[in-house]
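Please check what follows.
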Amino acid sequence: MYNFNFHTASSLDDAVAKLGAAEDGTVMAGGQTLIPVLKQRLAKPSDVVDLSGIGELKGITANSDGVTIGAMTRHADVAKSSDVPAALRAVAEGIGDAQVRNRGTLGGSVANNDPAADYPAALLGLGATITTNQRDIAADDFFTGMFDTALTDGEIIKSVTFPNAIKAAYAKFPNPASRYALVGVFVAQTASGVRVAVTGASGCVHRATEMEKALSANWSAAALDGISIPSSGLNSDIHGSAEYRAHLVTVMAKRAVAAAG
């Protein structure tokens, strides 16, 4: 690791000010990605602004329309909250191990947009809204590429609002070491229609529109029998080929639909 200026922000406005004053600053949520990246010198910010002391970014609020989760709310807190729908709790419960779940945050995961992360699938699958210090962003517009999002310089996630779903579930095939998704699929029946979001298979979380059409006509695992996912453009590595991941997308989608009921 190398020298950088470390700041602890007392409020969201303070974090924005500190970030704006830095030559090349970045924010730290739970640090589960940033700290390893710094240790490997894959990033060299001039300043790191810690968000962990900002109370306004933490907490879970539910109402008749859905649930809003603060960006600095940790995975473990989401997993055990009775205010959080079961499908979202299942996502949080399956992230990493206990140490990661007790440090990692919703906002950090969403902002990082790792191509194998679980939360992006939940956001896209439920049609969530990301609220920042500047605006509201629909999940469909937020995830733009591998480790890339619609966030601009100085923009910090405040919370994520998940609308209620009629039915929803998440199924993933985890890497046995990292617990990241080799492939994960979140399915949901929502007020605006069926949504199917896939993570781990490609460079960025995405919707499986052909599956959405099939499930809109017939909400059952059998409705996906005739759908073949093309392997072109999918990830291929030592953990699984593109063809294997293409197969897993259908398998995990069927499991998610069955789990949703």
